[in-house]
Specification:
It is built from 2 helices and 10 strands. It has 215 residues and is mostly beta strands. The chain has 2 domains: 84 residues, Thrombin, subunit H (Beta Barrel), CATH 2.40.10; 108 residues, Thrombin, subunit H, CATH 2.40.10.10. Strands 1, 5, 6, 7, 8, 9 and 10 form a 7-stranded antiparallel beta sheet that branches. It holds the Pfam family Trypsin. GO terms for molecular function: serine-type endopeptidase activity. Keywords: Disulfide bond, Hydrolase, Protease, Serine protease, Signal, Zymogen.
Length: 215
């Protein structure tokens, strides 16, 4: 992802549209949406793609749409995906596993490539460096180190941006974060939900609804 040089201005939080923004109070919901797996282009129907309806959505019960705290959601699929060369699971981190400053991670998505450009047609990926907690604390007033990750070198024109929300931040083959929010100009660093802080909730929710279909 390549972002333009920003005009001088204080950072402002710019969340990407999230499914949870359109849901009522916390709880599981029946939705008429589908998940597309194995996709590279979102404008073409590729042979590698699998489209599976979503049976239920589980936004975190304490998600805050003002501060983006607890910005995580689980989707229960109507059936299990077929494992192929284009579709495979990714490892989750250990409970409260640390992601240290200086670690290189990658993020992928179909978000905007520039401020005034439309979303990408083909999947984009960029390497980002994990930053110190102090950098995001100084930049974003609602940043919470225990549940969020600060990533993206402010000296480089590389970052996730609008439309990438919900995408994975992958470090050494492990999904450590989820794209959450950043500033309006797309300049790094951005804030990512720290998956390791939510493993108990993930496991509890999956166990609770295991008997009601594949998750």
């Amino acid at each position: 992802r390549v972002s333009p040089h920003p005009p001088p201005a204080p950072p402002q939080a710019l969340p990407c549209p999230k499914l949870s923004s359109f849901l009522p109070a916390p709880g599981p919901y029946l939705l008429s949406i589908g998940v597309t797996l194995g996709a590279h282009s979102i404008m073409e129907r590729e042979r590698t793609q699998q489209v599976i309806p979503v049976r239920r959505a589980f936004p975190h019960p304490h998600y805050n749409d003002k501060t983006f705290e607890n910005d995580i959601m689980l989707l229960q699929l109507a059936w299990k995906a077929d494992m192929t060369d284009a579709v495979s699971p990714i490892s989750l981190p250990r409970n409260f596993q640390k992601v240290n400053p200086g670690m290189m991670c990658s993020v992928a998505g179909w978000g905007r490539l520039e401020v005034n450009m439309p979303s990408a047609d083909k999947l984009q990926e960029v390497d980002l460096e994990v930053q110190s907690e102090q950098r995001c604390i100084a930049r974003f007033r609602d940043y919470i180190p225990i549940t969020q990750i600060c990533a993206g070198d402010p000296n480089k024109r590389k970052n996730s941006y609008s439309g990438d929300s919900g995408g994975p931040l992958v470090c050494d083959g492990v999904a450590q974060g989820i794209v959450s929010y950043g500033d309006v100009y797309g300049t790094a660093p951005n804030v990512y939900t720290r998956i390791s802080s939510f493993l108990y909730w993930i496991q509890k929710t999956m166990r609770q609804y295991k008997q009601q279909g594949s998750a």
